[in-house]
Specification:
Blueprint lengths: L3 E4 L4 E7 L1 H4 L4 E10 L7 E8 L3 E8 L5 E10 L4 E10 L3
Parallel strand pairs: 1-7
Antiparallel strand pairs: 2-5, 3-6, 4-5, 6-7
């Protein structure tokens, strides 16, 4: 089941992932955030900043088009060369 978060287009919000359960003894080597609109062809959402530790990642997102559903995927590469993806949906609503 995919988690859906609500966000106003004027908000700057932080989203994070804890990968420690999937990593075992490995650590995160790289982290990439991929954002795709699922209901309209326009993106209009901005990655403000990204961060990572050995076991976690975070991203700050701002903007977005009202009534647009985005899929946000965090793709990490581990120290043992595995690639893992985790996604959530972000619905932009005017509050």
């Amino acid at each position: 089941m995919t988690t859906v978060f609500l966000k106003d287009k004027d908000e700057l919000l932080d989203y994070s992932e804890d990968w420690s359960d999937e990593l075992g003894s490995a650590t995160i080597s790289t982290s990439t955030w991929i954002i795709t609109p699922t209901t309209q062809p326009s993106l209009d959402i901005v990655t403000n900043s990204e961060a990572q530790t050995d076991t976690g990642t975070s991203v700050k997102l701002e903007g977005g088009r009202n009534r647009t559903l985005y899929t946000v995927t965090n793709r990490v590469t581990t120290s043992d060369s595995l690639t893992l993806d985790r996604s959530f949906e972000l619905l932009i609503v005017e509050r």
